[in-house]
Amino acid sequence: MSFGIDKQTLDELNLLGKFRSGSVYNLFNQVKTRGGEQLLDKMFRSPMNDVRKINERTDVFRFFQEKQLTFPVDAQQISLMREYMDSGVGSNLPMVFAGTVVKRILSSLARDERHKKNIQGLQAVIAVMNRCYAFLQNTPAAPDTYKNRVAQIMRVLSDPRMEKLRKIDIYKSLALKELVYYNHLLKSKLFREVEDVMRFIYELDVNIHVSAVARSKGFTFAKAFFPEQNVLSADNLRHPCLDKAIGNSLLLDEESNVLFLTGANMAGKSTFMKSVGIGIYLAHIGFPVAADFMEFSVRDGLYSSINVADNINLGYSHFYAEVVRVKQAAEAAASGKRLMLMFDELFKGTNVKDAYDGTLAVTEGFSEYTECLFIVSTHIIEVGEALKTRSNIKFAYMPTVMDGSRPRYTYRMREGITQDRQGMMIIRNEGILELIGD
Question: Most buried residue among 62, 259, 287, 437 by CB atoms closer than 10 A?
Answer without folding.
Answer: 287
